[in-house]
């Protein structure tokens, strides 16, 4: 049995539901009465903001969620990008999180995968900041 989901949207806000983009013209509260795949506008990453490995992965998973008609293509991109991203990190929190992301995507739960990736942003930021501030060792 599915549960209903209550959402409150501000005037002008957009929501992506099952591949459709809806924009409300005034403050509104809606109730989803059945299972639906949705993404609130404030969780949508724009292509220009996909500037780190995890944000690029987020963007691809987001495409799976937002555009179900192209999900197969986005899933193929996800597989390649996931492998490259996993290989680029040694931080155990990120690598374990990425494995959970793959499990969620494989289980058809891209929304949960996006939540995991967003939760990894601060860790990624710390890792990337540390690698930028630590210059490579000099050759002797």
Brief summary of the model shown:
The protein has 140 residues and is of the alpha+beta class.
Principal-axes geometry comes out as globular
**Helix count?**
4
Mean pLDDT: 90
Terminal-residue CA separation: 67 Å
Question: Which parts are unreliable, with pLDDT below 50 for 5 consecutive residues or more?
Answer: none
What percent of the residues sit in helical stretches (DSSP H or I)? 40-55%
Q: How many strands, which pairing sense, and closed or not: the largest β-sheet?
A: 3 strands, antiparallel
Organism: Microvirga thermotolerans
Function: Has a post-transcriptional repressor function in flagellum biogenesis. Associates with the 5'-UTR of fljK mRNA and promotes its degradation.
Protein name: Probable flagellum biosynthesis repressor protein FlbT
Pfam families: FlbT
Question: What structural keywords apply?
Answer:
140 residues, alpha+beta, three-stranded antiparallel beta sheet, two-stranded antiparallel sheet, globular
What does this structure look like?
It is a single chain. This protein has 140 residues and is of the alpha+beta class. It is 51% helix and 15% strand. A three-stranded antiparallel sheet has the order 3-2-5, with helices on one face. The chain has a two-stranded antiparallel sheet with strand order 1-4. A hairpin with a 2-residue loop joins strand 2 and strand 3. The longest helix is centred in the last third of the chain and has 24 residues. Keywords: Bacterial flagellum biogenesis, Cell projection, Cilium, Flagellum, Repressor, RNA-binding. Has a post-transcriptional repressor function in flagellum biogenesis. Associates with the 5'-UTR of fljK mRNA and promotes its degradation. It holds the Pfam family FlbT.
């Amino acid at each position: 049995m599915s549960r209903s989901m209550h959402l409150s949207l501000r005037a002008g806000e957009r929501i992506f539901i099952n591949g459709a983009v809806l924009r409300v013209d005034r403050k509104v509260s809606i109730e989803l009465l059945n299972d639906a795949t949705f993404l609130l506008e404030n969780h949508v990453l724009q292509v220009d903001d996909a500037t780190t490995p995890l944000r690029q992965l987020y963007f691809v998973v987001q495409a799976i969620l937002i555009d179900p008609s192209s999900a197969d293509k986005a899933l193929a991109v996800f597989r390649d990008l996931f492998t490259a991203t996993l290989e680029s990190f040694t931080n155990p929190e990120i690598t374990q999180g990425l494995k959970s992301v793959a499990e969620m995507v494989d289980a058809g739960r891209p929304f949960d995968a996006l939540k995991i990736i967003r939760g990894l942003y601060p860790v990624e930021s710390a890792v990337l900041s540390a690698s930028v501030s630590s210059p490579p060792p000099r050759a002797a």
